[in-house]
Description:
Blueprint: E1 5-11, H1 15-25, E2 31-35, H2 42-46, H3 77-90, E3 95-97, E4 101-107, E5 110-115, E6 118-127, E7 134-135, E8 149-152, E9 166-170, H4 174-183, E10 190-194, E11 201-203, E12 205-206, E13 209-210, H5 215-220, H6 223-238, H7 253-260, E14 265-267, H8 270-275, E15 279-282, E16 285-289, E17 292-295, E18 300-301, E19 305-308, E20 312-313, H9 317-320, E21 345-347, H10 357-372
Parallel strand pairs: 1-2, 1-6, 2-3, 6-21, 8-19, 9-10, 9-19, 10-15, 11-14
Antiparallel strand pairs: 4-5, 5-6, 7-20, 12-13, 16-17, 17-18
Organism: Mesorhizobium hungaricum
GO molecular function: flavin adenine dinucleotide binding; monooxygenase activity; NADP binding
Keywords: Monooxygenase, Oxidoreductase
Amino acid sequence: xxxxxxxxxxxxxxxxxxxxxxxxxxxxxxxxxxxxxxxxxxxxxxxxxxxxxxxxxxxxxxxxxxxxxxxxxxxxxxxxxxxxxxxxxxxxxxxxxxxxxxxxxxxxxxxxxxxxxxxxxxxxxxxxxxxxxxxxxxxxxxxxxxxxxxxxxxxxxxxxxxxxxxxxxxxxxxxxxxxxxxxxxxxxxxxxxxxxxxxxxxxxxxxxxxxxxxxxxxxxxxxxxxxxxxxxxxxxxxxxxxxxxxxxxxxxxxxxxxxxxxxxxxxxxxxxxxxxxxxxxxxxxxxxxxxxxxxxxxxxxxxxxxxxxxxxxxxxxxxxxxxxxxxxxxxxxxxxxxxxxxxxxxxxxxxxxxxxxxxxxxxxxxxxxxxxxxxx
Length: 376
């Protein structure tokens, strides 16, 4: 029996996967879209109730379908979920749910996609599972003996969960500032943030203007100039963050975004709370003890809840083992329409961008679809 070789299989039905399927359809190519969960936007369903995009709605939609009227400038969780569901319906994208992909292997001139429901074959496979698929936490000494709660920022929950609690946020990056922004409105007993390096952080708004609206300009600048402009705006808006207790910045914001895939943090009240003394800044965590957290400078603090805002990993190693397409951190060596060592295997939206996830996913989807259609 001759096996059926499909033109494209897209793994993941989030914004990037839907954008890829839609872009391919515009070239007359029908893609099979696999989603391991039972509904679209499952990661959004699982995140905390206050979650919202840090990118403006005008930079947060997929090609050809803006948000409907009435959606806030920074779309909240419910609006994002509704948008993705509507996009799939409107564009006629049939998602195959419950299709957890176990392995992708090379099979001659095409790929074999191994799932719990069997093996499917395709000439092209687009990995659209995201760069923040698996919450990552350092292996801190003594963490298992800590008497308080130690959670990842992905499990933030509700600000009400922190009422009357002493809270330590570990990490002053994008997810760290997200947690701090939400905690400002909580009735926590105390809030502390620990970080190894100074943050690259910009306000969500200047007056009524969303800072992210200027991202196209920043993205078009040479990296050194982009670093300078972000640092200049950060200094103008917040002053010297070292005076608040943060460590010096070791690398420019755009360089960190490009080289280390670290997104620029968005401030929405945290810096003001730090300046007002409502949030304390300390150095990095060295180890945990049953009743306290010991810091790198030898001092110690007590906390009821520790939020590890320590980033994410792709979780792609088991799926792509043996193909040589991942670096030592499990991140793809290529992204978008960049050629790799496995022709026909593509990665979409695997790197953070100053332009935002949705906008970048749409642009990368167009480029990948054009390559597959032979028009790129």
